[in-house]
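Q: Structure tokens for this one, please.
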Amino acid sequence: MCATKTWDVEATVRQVVDLERAGADIVRIAVDSARDVAALPAIRARTAASLSVDLQENYRLAAQVAPFVDKIRYNPGHLYHHEKEKPVRDKVAFLAELATRHDCAIRVGVNCGSIDPEVAGRFAGDSVAGMVASAEEHCALLDDLGFQRYCVSLKDSDPVKVIDANRRFAADRPDVPLHLGVTEAGLPPDGVIKTRIAFEQLISRGIGDTIRVSLTLPNDRKGEEIAAGRLILDDIAHRRYRSVPENLGRRLNIISCPSCSRVENEAFVDLAEKVREVTAYAREHAVTIAVMGCRVNGPGETDDADLGLWCAPTHVNLKRKSETIGTFAYDEVLSRLRIELDRLIAARQSE
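A: Here is the predicted structure, written as tokens:
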């Protein structure tokens, strides 16, 4: 996925070319504004790459972007929040009609932190069941509309949940292609390890058709995601498996979203690195810290973490689960994070 601002045609085309050279077969870009939409014709004219567009929170932009891309990705949770008075089926029909007219495929992208609340509410906190149900319901909608050129992704930052969700879905709908990934896997090498665990368990069972490795990296290192993915695939093909660590999930776990075009301050990547450094002393404690780089992932996908940081352009929102502790400057938040981490560890030790 490109990490450049889509409206910056030069930078985006350059990164598309770089990602292709690194071995990417499909390049995903995000459309989040009128400026992004206006840039697409120029981007399309300068690359023959297979482009997948992420519609973000406004599915109606598909009407303007479909002529210039090969695949449209939408999130059922975001679809729910936009034009709530309109039936979801009508929104999906709108996307399917456009995709048919412009010869596009569709990806139904279900993420753990943004499940349709009506679906999530039926499963009493079982996020995996909610993800699978959401994906299956949207598959049924597309099937009823006669649209067949679609795939599904079910992603979480926890590789165990990724394995569970994709195995459940594949058992119910083996006919539907699956795009695999551990979202917000975080910084390398930990992010690569989490991704490898999920891919080994799924691909070795014949589950999965395309993959993405999502790492927190600066723009000029995005090719490392592709290199990691291809190495994992090669290892699986030659049966070079790595065992799943017995303490998986019982140590300090830092999750952070990949650098992408939604990041509102590039200092986010450096902050994620510094979070890992200043919390290293707590590595034997089962604490999850989430570092998110934008308003899309930040508010919702830090709710399940023990401590969460979601980064705005000029400040960082520090959270304890769903509770906001406060907002801090980028150069101030680390000291407060350590205070909150120490409090959390002390509270658990006194239980």
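A few notes: The chain is about 40% helix and 15% strand. Residues 127-144 form the longest helix (18 residues).
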